[in-house]
Write a structure and sequence with these properties.
Largest sheet: 7 strands, mixed
Helix content: 25-40%
Strand content: 25-35%
Order of helices and strands: EHEEEHEHEEHEHEEEEHEHEEH
Radius of gyration: 19 Å
Strand order of the largest sheet: 3-2-1-4-5-6-7
Number of strands: 15
Distance between the termini: 16 Å
Bound molecules: ribose-5-phosphate
Structural class: alpha/beta
Oligomer: single chain
Number of helices: 8
Length: 286
């Protein structure tokens, strides 16, 4: 079955590269914005009888926010179905809403479960370094999802650029990224304890780490507060590594005042030095 990669608005930085590596044909979605803010979506590719892979990372840019991108993707996927695509898949370098995995107050939506339902239209959903917290594996709640790890790519980057680092995780969930990377590097690691008060306030506890080079790894960098607080428990040259650099509210410049900031390129940004395209292609070919 012939494959076609279709970049949605949040996938254009990776879609062409993935198509080239897979020797697949390539297309994009075209978005029109109405004065009342509704969007119109058109698929600019031949998809009848093809295996379609949409590429969409959910982040805010100057034209669309996360929720626009979600609507764009769902409209495009349903359109692909009605146009006769044989299989419809999603490659989501950064998949949003996974952190909302329980109802803390009566009446609160469990957003990740709702998205899982909306994603039933896809045969497979490839997600790079998903945020899995209270649910530890996709098997428990997202049966068509496939997890893609960037532990090799992250460890290789550190090996090339940073000498004898100690790897630090800001909270218990960060073990998922810290332990595999530390193992690959044969490096010492430390996991701190985080208490979150609200979306902009966290407190981090643990023993101070002293080393010439310290790498603090987390999955998502949003406001940057988690990493800033974690850095207060370290002494040495600080490197912040994030799987997904969302960098809300000036987080990148705040972090840069403390250390060097590196992310993967699941979301396009200036810190995106670790490429995720090979890991995605490898998983698709499996
Ligand atoms: C949360 O549990 C995640 O793993 C990250 O630690 C969190 O999303 C980072 O957010 P912020 O940069 O706003 O502290």
């Amino acid at each position: 079955m012939k494959e076609v990669i279709i970049s949605c608005s949040g996938g254009k930085h990776l879609g062409k590269k993935i198509a080239k590596k897979l020797k697949a044909s390539y297309g994009e979605t075209i978005i029109e914005r109405f004065p009342d803010t509704e969007i119109k979506v058109r698929i600019n590719a031949e998809i009848k009888n093809k295996k379609v892979f949409f590429v969409q990372s959910f982040y805010k840019d100057k034209n669309l926010d996360i929720n626009d991108k979600l609507i764009e993707l769902l409209f495009a996927a349903h359109t692909a179905k009605s146009l006769g695509a044989k299989k419809i898949n999603l490659i989501s370098p950064y998949f949003a809403y996974l952190r909302q995995d329980m109802s803390f107050k009566k009446g609160e939506a469990v957003a990740n479960r709702i998205l899982v339902n909306l994603c039933k239209i896809f045969n497979k959903v490839y997600i790079v370094e998903p945020h899995l917290h209270r649910l530890h594996s996709f098997k428990e709640f997202f049966p068509n999802a496939v997890r893609i790890s960037l532990a090799d790519e992250t460890a290789n980057y550190i090996k090339r650029k940073i000498k004898n680092p100690v790897i630090v995780g800001p909270d218990i969930e960060s073990e998922q990224w810290v332990i595999p990377v530390a193992k690959k590097l044969n490096a010492e690691h430390k996991i701190l304890k985080k208490q979150r008060f609200n979306s902009r306030k966290v407190k981090i506890k643990g023993k101070k780490t002293k080393n010439k080079n310290i790498v603090i790894i987390d999955d998502i960098i949003s406001s940057g507060h988690t990493l800033i607080e974690a850095s207060k428990l370290t002494k040495g040259n600080i490197y912040f590594i994030g799987m997904h650099g969302l960098f809300a509210e000036g987080a990148l410049s705040k972090l840069k005042k403390i250390g060097k900031v590196i992310t993967t390129n699941t979301i396009p940004n200036k810190a995106g030095k670790i490429d995720c395209a090979n890991a995605i292609v490898k998983k698709i070919k499996k």
